[in-house]
Write a structure and sequence with these properties.
The chain is α/β, with parallel strands linked by helices. The protein folds into 2 domains: about 100 residues, no CATH class; about 250 residues, Rossmann fold (3-Layer(aba) Sandwich). About 45% of the residues lie in helices and about 10% in strands. It has a 7-stranded parallel sheet, with helices on both faces. β1, α8 and β2 form a beta-alpha-beta unit. The N and C termini lie far apart (about 80 Å).
């Protein structure tokens, strides 16, 4: 037999056999499997300085052999005295003769079981490591009058329309704009309809982290909560031009206002939403991302594409905290802005071309978008997150 020839070529020294057996008996007590695998025992007998000694050293040596050969923990806790006939030399082998290396198998539930001391500590350690998260369906105000919404860039244009419709729905609204006079004027006009004390005005640049933290803190101090954030501040900011004609400063400015500002505002409001276990974030992107049109607005289109990625990333990360993150993509809505992007002739031509390409051949107005914003800020959209809602008369579909 090949195994017998191997045993003849590599005979096991008698001293090693007696040492592994604790000095009592011969290799006859090692069992059939141990005798046919001399290499297993030879590895344990190669270190003369660590041979079996009397007393506790001998039992520790036995327990080490038992664990190495797969006997398991219950086999390692043996009484004093080296009974090497029960050494397992192959994991999972349970022969009919227990003295031939088989032994009694451990129950599956007891295999790889941690020590009792570690098992006692594990629940406490896991509790410290894992933050308790609320039920995503729990939390949130009971009535619309309790909700608090922040709208950035609400001093004019679309942002002002969003803030007005939210206030009409009963939500308390914080109007934020980089132009303080425009923010105060919008807040006064909205308060005249919604009621005094339900609208506040804040002057802030959304690209400045300190100013963002200041107005979010002021809103939380006044009303005790922040339920919704509409990240509307942004704009093309620059006239249309070839992509390689923009300076690095112009490129960075457009990305900061349209993308980084939304990230900063979300970072500021999320702690308040997490504390309540509820929140709505509505980012404003653009349908230009789908088609890259009109030409000449590469920095703006790039920034708005980043808003889509930010929306999806935040919805995935904040969902377990009960915070829903969505985006709306407005079509071409003619509004007055402080920065002129198109000449009057180009703006008229763009409006007519967009109308002809839409499924609905009409020109959009700010109120066409406000309903979608109010819906995404309300409990009616609690099962919607990570979505981009195109409000463009079907332009991206056409």
């Amino acid at each position: 037999m090949p195994r017998q020839r191997q045993a003849e070529q590599r005979p096991l020294p008698a001293a090693a056999v007696r040492a592994a057996a604790g000095g009592r008996g011969t290799g006859r007590r090692l069992g059939a499997q141990a005798r046919h695998r001399p290499g297993r025992l030879r590895r344990d007998a190669r270190r003369p300085g660590r041979e079996l000694r009397r007393g506790g050293d001998r039992c520790r040596r036995l327990r080490r052999l038992l664990l190495v050969h797969g006997a398991g923990r219950d086999r390692a806790r043996t009484p004093r005295g080296p009974v090497l006939c029960r050494v397992h030399v192959r994991a999972g082998h349970h022969g009919p003769d227990r003295r031939a290396g088989g032994g009694r198998p451990r129950p599956a539930a007891h295999r790889h079981r941690p020590s009792a001391r570690l098992a006692d500590r594990r629940p406490a350690r896991r509790a410290r490591r894992r933050r308790e998260r609320p039920d995503p369906r729990a939390g949130g105000p009971v009535t619309a009058a309790e909700r608090v919404a922040i709208v950035t860039g609400a001093g004019q244009g679309l942002g002002r329309a969003y803030a007005a419709r939210l206030a009409e729905a009963g939500t308390r609204v914080a109007v934020v704009d980089i132009a303080g006079d425009a923010a105060r004027s919008a807040a006064e006009a909205i308060a005249a309809v919604a009621g005094a004390g339900r609208v506040t005005a804040h002057e802030a640049d959304v690209t400045d982290a300190e100013q963002v933290g200041a107005f979010v803190g002021a809103v939380a101090d006044r009303w005790g909560r922040v339920d919704a954030l509409v990240n509307n501040a942004g704009g093309a900011l620059l006239p249309t031009a070839p992509f390689d004609s923009f300076s690095r400063a112009e490129w960075t400015r457009v990305l900061d206002v349209n993308l980084t500002g939304q990230w900063l505002c979300a970072t500021a409001v999320v702690p308040h939403m997490r504390a309540a276990g509820y929140g709505k974030i509505v980012n404003v992107t653009s349908t230009m991302v789908a088609k890259g049109l009109p030409a000449g607005l590469a920095p703006y289109v790039t920034a708005k594409a980043g808003v889509v990625g930010l929306t999806r990333a935040l919805s995935r990360e904040l969902g377990p905290d009960g915070i829903r993150v969505n985006a709306i993509a407005p079509g071409y809505i003619p509004v007055e802005t402080r920065k002129t992007v198109h000449t009057p002739e180009a703006a008229l031509a763009l409006r007519e071309r967009m109308k002809s390409e839409q499924c609905l051949p009409v020109v959009g107005v700010p109120d066409d978008l406000s309903g979608a914003v109010v819906f995404l800020c309300s409990p009616d959209s609690d099962f919607i997150t990570g979505q981009v809602v195109n409000v463009d008369g079907g332009w991206t579909h056409g």
